[in-house]
Amino acid sequence: MTLRLAVGPVTPHLFRPDRQRPVRAKLLHLLAATRVVPHAHPWGQIAISSTGVVRVTMPHGTTIVPPSRALWIPPGVEHAVTVVEDADLLTLYVDPGRRVQGLAGNAAEVARWGQCRVLEASRLLLALALALDARPDDAQDPPDRDALAREKRIAALLVDELRRAPQVPLGIALPSEKRLRRLCEAMLDDPSRHASLEAWAGDAGASPRTIARLFRSELGTTFIRWREQVLLARAVPLAARRMPMAAIAAELGYASPSAFAAMVKRSVGSSPMRFFRAEA
Question: How far, in whole angstroms, is CA 130 from its chain's centroid?
Fold first, then answer.
């Protein structure tokens, strides 16, 4: 199935998880610039981009999801999906009971799984997710008893692999103030359109001083630091495709590779080569 532009959530009721099928898989091919409008589910969700890159936005933050990442979204959390580049989006719906019974082993873990989390997607995790039956409930050839038993075994191992997956800090905070929220979302869509606070403030119809103050009060950071986090998040999937550093720098609007390298060093304390090797 191929989708483009703004769409609603695609037939989630046909992939409803339950005790018999605690983890359900849904696979969609999404074209760049497609946006799935804000929505929520009564069950947990894991978003994995098996190919391509998507951005998932929640009320208080957004994260880039390349193939090396999995995003956990707890039940009831509103989220929207924006496709950065053509992607095969694998969505796993998790029965709410599994959040406690399988993912969380103690009270502290229950609290952690009650929040959105960005996780490393190991090769095993991705292979298990792709091995799940992705047919909807109204398919003409539903899985038989043996297939359902196998699916349950795969789901149990997948949940265990998710529980062991390291959490990674690739989330980007978003403000609640309307003017700054619109500006931040525009920067997420095209972070290299402007390099200066003055130019972005002009787009927002506010003074640079006002925008700078809002960044400090709403997000506890500066315009420069927040924009650098956006650029780093956009650079990760480019590096994962083994794009040369010079090409990544040009793609993100840097005049030279050395200027891009200086930004990475300042932001994460290591060279681009070391940082992106660790991310990959």
Answer: 18
**Could you tell me if 154 and 127 are in contact, meaning their C-beta atoms sit under 8 angstroms apart?**
no
Q: What residue ranges of the chain have pLDDT lower than 70?
A: 1-4, 97-107, 169-170, 277-280
Q: Residue 266 has which token pair?
A: 């300042």
Question: Which tokens belong to 202?
Answer: 């002009």
CATH class of the domain comprising 176-279: mainly alpha
Q: Where along the chain do its domains lie?
A: 2-164, 176-279
- Please state, in angstroms and as integers, the Cα–Cα distance from residue 272 to each residue in 10, 104, 234, 251, 276, following that order: 38, 35, 13, 15, 6
Identify the CATH class of 2-164.
Answer: mainly beta
The set of residues, in sequence order, having a beta carbon less than 8 Å from that of 230 and lying 6+ positions away, is 172, 187, 188, 191
**Per-residue pLDDT reduced to its tens digit, 134-181:** 999 999 888 999 999 999 999 999 999 998 998 876 678 899 899 999
User: What is the C-alpha to C-alpha distance for residues 99 and 256, in angstroms, rounded to an integer?
Assistant: 46
